[in-house]
Design goal:
There is one protein chain. The protein is built from five helices and two strands, in the order H-H-H-H-E-E-H. The protein has about 120 residues and is mainly alpha-helical.
């Protein structure tokens, strides 16, 4: 995925209204009027959000007689998810290294406690 398209995808996803529109379109196609219903904003405002989503390749508009339904285009989302997966792998590896270090430190602490033996009051060190 090119950086321009990736940037456009993340910019489009940064807005909660646009994420809600995508969630609605995941259920099925809808017109601008149908998309505007749950929001307290005008159809022109929804159209502006749709233009951002279209530029990012996340939404396309068709023509069905007089209707102009919008539909979700998932390809940019898949590509953004693939890009993020590389970082998920990085963090998973980092956590595994941290877990190994913590296990090593615990083993050292336990060995030190055994070497010191019980305290004068009879409890373990």
């Amino acid at each position: 995925m090119g950086t321009d398209l990736l940037d456009a995808t993340f910019a489009a996803l940064a807005d909660p209204t646009r994420r809600a529109i995508l969630a609605r379109l995941a259920v099925g196609e809808a017109t601008v009027t149908e998309l505007a219903e749950p929001f307290e904003m005008s159809q022109p405002a929804i159209s502006k959000h749709l233009k951002v989503l279209e530029r990012a390749g996340l939404v396309s508009r068709g023509r069905d007689a007089q209707r102009r339904p919008c539909r979700l285009e998932a390809r940019p989302l898949r590509e953004a998810t693939a890009w993020l997966a590389d970082y998920r792998d990085y963090w998973a590896e980092s956590y595994q290294r941290l877990d190994a270090l913590l296990d090593e430190l615990r083993a050292v602490d336990e060995a030190d406690a055994e070497r010191r033996g019980p305290r004068r009051d009879g409890t373990a060190a």
